[in-house]
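Hi W., the iron/sulfur cluster complex you wanted:
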Amino acid sequence: MQTQRPFSLLCELTYRCPLQCPYCSNPLDFARRAHELSTPEWKRALTEAAALGVVQAHFSGGEPLLRPDATEIIRHAHDLELYTNLSTGGTLLTETLAGQLRAAGLDSLQVSIQDADAENSDRMAGGAPSFAKKIEAARLAKAAGLSLTLNVVLQRQNIGRMEAIIALAEQLGAERLELANTQFNGWALKNRAALLPTRAQVQDAARLARAARERLKGRMEILYVLPDYFEPFPKACLHGWGRVFMAVAPDGTALPCQTAREIRGLTFDNVRERSLQKIWFESEAFCKFRGTDWLPEPCRSCSRKEADFGGCRCQAFLLTGEAAATDPACSLAPRHDLVDRALAETEAATEAQLIYRTANASLRISEAGQPIGSIGSRRRQTPKLPGPRE
Ligand code: SF4
Ligand code: SF4
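Structure:
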């Protein structure tokens, strides 16, 4: 099999963040991974990525704007002729910074909000007021002439407000609205019992997204993808492991997917020690699940194997303890019962207290060790969301 070159690089500039979203894609043990790449190290990684064939660089975190050199790193990517996109929680964006980002050549800015309802948005971001700052950030981005994407992670607490979310994106003049259903890895998996929507909620949301897409054609692009817990077959995670995408974590660890570090037993290389070229073509982590040769049954004999490559490796590992298992989200998977059970619990209105993404929670979880495949929930007493807790 000929290995193709990567197309897209995600640069997670830092895991530091003023917010505490309980579905954050950062690793559960983020608080133990503080040794961030320096400015020259990021520039070198980007130069290597461009030489390798990467054409898009996405900058995220944590909150990437906590790095005072974020603009300088983005300018370097722009000078390498990469398409650049920055994802921010929005709370730190100022008029000056928006202008500097525009001058550095940033192609697109993505601001995340947690909900169209200010109170719930603040609660989901950890409790401190942030909604108003996010709305202001979206306005500043537009005023600076940046192309604006509004990103909303959908989960049980906000999916019922799709119409208000779409109206808000229209009001802000967003070019793109990304309605991202929660991926149940890491923090989101810990909080699955509180975040997983019901089937009826997901179907309603899909209907509203379709109608809005039709109505706003040519004015605003709307991205809504059905969550894989509700589909018969999984999606090819990031178009296939080690196929077109690579991520570099704040400490320089190169990953086939930003959550791949959750898979125990895999060794990941660091851009401080090896070039991205060598990592992409030769490292254990990138080669292990590339292509279809490694697939187990029933994937090996399945006609969809070139389309989805057996689904998500992180999900397979986190739910079954086996990274090479068929993704349990697939209806043909031997352990699909794990997903069926989670969905049945949601339909029976289960609720759990949210665990917010705080440094204290991260240290506590990483000290205790992360259990695999045993996600607890308890009966709902009240639909009210609990506040953040350490
Ligand atoms: S998901 Fe929330 S907590 Fe995580 S990096 Fe983004 S804004 Fe910060
Ligand atoms: S059996 Fe494997 S290849 Fe077939 S649809 Fe399910 S995950 Fe995809």
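Residues 231 and 299 are 17 Å apart (CA to CA).

W.
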